[in-house]
Amino acid sequence: MNVTKNVKFQKEVDVDKGPTSQMMDTEDTQNVTELALALAKNAIAAAIKSMEEAENPIKNIDWITQGEFTEERGRKQIEEFISNWEYQGRWLHYTEFLKREDVIHSFHYIYCVHWSIPTARRPIARTTASVYFTIKINTNKPPDTPIDVSYVFESHSCVHRPGMTHFQEKHLRDIIEAKYILMNSNIFQFNSVR
């Protein structure tokens, strides 16, 4: 009889302990399964990205060195880089040098590439999209150092670097469409005032 009381007492103590080891094993198994699933998804995404990059590699050019740099050579290099971008033939662009900024230990040469889609009906486009390039020349680096190039799309804050991202024509279309919407909404407002 004493033995039976001890078994009952032991069962009551086990119930009061909280989660059993079997429940803890189930939770651990779920955590491991979730982790494995997340790792598998990341591996698949990385493999897909790798395959896409192999089929469509990011294009870049051999940029000149700081010692070879002039304003005109910088403009020509930007034109050469843009010639690697994939976009529909209806787009036209023009690259111009805007200004040189003196910054501590470097000079920033700013260029603007204006993009538009002229048509037979409107040979001079009403709106353009701009891409701003910055070529940074660091005065503390030797002349054989390649120039540092970055660019941003008008109204975007993401800074791109050559050879790091694919050009997406969609950025240009979005800028043009946003300007058309803005222009048309203002015309509409002016007409409603009269």
Describe the structure.
It is a single chain. Strand 1 and strand 2 form a beta hairpin. The protein has 194 residues and is α+β, with helices and mostly antiparallel strands. The longest helix has 35 residues. Strands 1-2-3-4 form a four-stranded antiparallel β-sheet. The model has no long low-confidence stretch (mean pLDDT 83). One of its GO terms (cellular component) is cAMP-dependent protein kinase complex. This is A-kinase anchor protein 14. It comes from Balaenoptera musculus (Blue whale). Pfam families: AKAP28. GO terms for molecular function: protein kinase A regulatory subunit binding.
Which helices and strands appear, and what pairs or packs with what?
Layout: H1 2-16, H2 21-55, H3 71-82, E1 92-103, E2 106-116, E3 129-138, E4 148-153, H4 169-193
Pfam families: AKAP28
Protein name: A-kinase anchor protein 14
InterPro entries: AKAP, AKAP_28
